[in-house]
Amino acid sequence: MSAGFGRPLAVAGGVLAVLLGAVWALSSTLPEEFSSPSPIAPDAAVSLVAQSVESVSAIRIAPADGLDYTLTRSPGGFALTPARLGFSYRPEELRTVAAAAVSVTGRLLTPEPPGEELLADWGLRPPAVVWSVTAGGRTVTLELGGKTPLGDGWYARVADAEPIYVIPAETGAALSRREPELRDLRFWPDLSDYAGDLGAAVRRVRVVGRETYAFRRLADDELDPLEPARFLVTEPVTHRANDYSLNERVIDALANIRPSLVIEDEPSDLKKYGLDEPYSLEVELADGVTRRLLIGGFWPGSSFPGRYVMIEGKNSVLVDEMRNYQFLNLHTPEILSKLLWIYPIEEVSTVTIELPDATRVLAFSWEGEALRVSLDGREILDTNGKRLYAALLQLTLADRAGEQPVGEPVLRVTLHFWDGRQAVMALFPVNERYLAAKIDGAPAEFTVARASVAAFLEKLRIVDNGGKIE
Q1: Which of the four, 95, 101, 199, 342, has the lowest number of CB atoms within 10 Å?
Q2: Could you tell me where the DSSP H helices lie in 218-361?
Q3: What is the pLDDT, as a whole number, of residue 8?
Q4: CA distances (Å), 212 to each of 154, 198, 209, 237, in order?
């Protein structure tokens, strides 16, 4: 046999001896119940820890750049101690970390000490995370380093042992999670009793944003069959809501509030987060609990446009996606019912229409189910009468009124009811486009578009000329 042929055999024999030595080193370091039963070979999957989640009594996670925490067995899974600042923790996230910690396989990278420089390069000097698993009264401690250059794994080893392994990327990612990442940051409770529909659970909402507005759910005995609004706006005015707009512009947006990052616990300077004079959200749900959220400035993070927030009772600055807070920019009339008044025609006996140069009277009478209508004492088509009345109801809200109007109204409409009641709408000039509306003598809260008044007067002209309103 030539010398050149024998040299590879000698090298292979040396490698085998090193690998056998690694097997001995690992088995002598791990307690028996944690030891791998299989021999170690390059690129082979090696079990560093092999326990079921159910058999483990405690797992301690000690990040180099974060607070240590311990996962202990509890009837429902795992509990995290010490809990921070009144937060609870997401059970599914705790179980993910526990499952990663107790069942770790790795690919042998080197069985021999790699030297201090390589240990530092691999994030193992010092380790990024030290974790200990206790089962059956015995504990094994392991160390997690950094990611591999390709990001497909993490460097790890059993504490104080020489072999270095690469463990799967998902295992390393789970073990590197800090305590704040495991907190339950949800603002809303479980809404399964309401089929996940926040709108069905809302009793009352108050928002302090660019404008301050508030609304509440109407009780069943407050509902109007002619206007099926479920909500009443209570601030800055009292007026029935436009439920469609309210759900689309506010409630659907509120349902998406989900803070996802912890920026700082127990902050000493709220001003840098825009939380010294914050916007705010206050919500009372059907469970009777009032929840409050403080909303600050914009988070300059690169992963998504965000906003700083704080949940009342939890002294931590969090971040949520900025798109969830468009309700802060709402202009209140956008969520108001456009109807300034609504009364069934069956309840009305006469309508007095006072114009600057004339007073007109629209009268209704019933013969069974047949409606008879007269205008200034002259009988007109019942369809014309109904459409004139509908045009009066369509003198609808355009915007909030500013200063109170002065002078005489350009139109005053008085509804006289069969039971003796009256309802009055008086419209006063504001500018070329709008008229301020006073309802029943109250201060003007809203404006009406002059165009809607012009549409009513045009219908009146058609009837005066003997035509039919289409």
Answers
A1: 342
A2: 243-246, 252-255
A3: 37
A4: 51, 21, 6, 10
pLDDT tens, position by position, 71-91: 999 888 899 999 888 889 999
Q: Round to whole Å and give the CA distance between 314 and 352.
A: 59
Q: Residues near 158 by Cβ (< 8 Å), separated by ≥ 6?
A: 26, 29, 30, 48, 140, 141, 142, 143
Q: How far is CA 185 from CA 88, 291, 309, 311, 319, in A?
A: 8, 13, 11, 9, 10
Which pair of tokens denotes residue 284?
Answer: 């009372």
Instruction: Kindly list the strands in the beta sheet with 290-299, ordered across the sheet, starting from the edge strand earlier in the chain.
Output: 239-240, 231-235, 212-217, 202-208, 279-285, 290-299, 306-311, 316-321, 261-265
What is the Cα–Cα distance from 58 to 391, expressed in whole angstroms?
Answer: 74
Token pair belonging to 54: 């159910």
What's the mean pLDDT when you consider all of the chain? 88
Q: How far does Cα 372 stand from its chain's mean position?
A: 55
3-state secondary structure of 461: helix
The pLDDT tens digits for 131-154 are: 999 998 899 999 999 999 999 999
Whole-number Å distance between alpha carbons of 369 and 381 = 15
Sequence-separated (6 or more) residues with CB below 8 Å from residue 302: none
Q: DSSP strand E in 149-211: where?
A: 153-158, 164-168, 202-208
What is the DSSP code string of 385-446? HHHHHHHHHT--EEEE--SPP-S--SEEEEEEETTS-EEEEEEEE-SSSEEEEEETTPPP-E
For residue 38, pLDDT over 70 is answered with no
Q: Got the DSSP string for 228-251?
A: ---EEEEESS-EEB-HHHHIIIII
Task: Fill in the DSSP letter of residue 314.
Answer: -
Helix (H, G, I), strand (E, B) or coil at 311: strand
* Token pair of 412 as six digits: 């005053």
Both tokens of 179, joined, read: 């305590």
